[in-house]
Design a protein that fits this description.
alpha+beta; Sulfite Oxidase, Chain A, domain 2; five-stranded mixed β-sheet; five-stranded antiparallel β-sheet; 5 helices
Amino acid sequence: MNSPANKVPKKRTVEQEIRRRTIIAFSVFFVCLACGGLLFARLYNEPADANNVQPTLRGGLKANEKMFSLFYSKTREAKKFPKSDAVKKVRVNGDVGMDGELDTSWRLRVVRNPGDTLSLTIDDIKALPKTEVVFDFKCVEGWSQVTWWGGVRFSDFMKKYNLVQQTAMHYVGMVTPDESYYVGNDMPSMLQPQTLLCYEMNGKPLPQNQGYPLRLIIPVKYGIKHLKRIGVMFFSNDKPADYWAERGYDYFSGL
């Protein structure tokens, strides 16, 4: 007589194995569905902050930012394309802060320190070495285009105007002249060699609707971070205000 220890397990038939796996799969599905429903109910009923963003959602966004920041590499560049691949009709990815046309009095105001502001004309910026970048511009709305831009490397700009001390700070803030649109970008992404203070598109001066006379092009970020019509630039160790981050988007917005 065989002892219980030597008893051979009964082999399942194909039908039994299919039934077992189906039960497991449906059980996992309904558990996940229930967890998703509970999470949705929590978010739906959770009191929002002053910017109408729930704390749970904000916590998830902060976790994403921390993860992306840890894996960010200063040497990483966005994929480059030949100019022939660039579209002729460049899509506009937003118009907040773009009301009206600027007159000839425009200046880029760079706040080096409190009470110390540098005022620059577009000719001051164009006097620096020109750099061009052709990359796949991505929008959070789900579309992308290969586009061609020209301007001054942000890193070159910082060296030229004796802002090396400011590069040790964590963030760069930028605001449109009418103060209705504003972004904050982390300093490592700003110093990435493809990041431009841009004054040309497709080899010609920027159109009004693309940020004339000067905009930011930062290929390692989504389009919401590419501020058009820069009026003021400043530096901070604390996160500057960011238009879309206040509305529930990821502050880092990296690619």
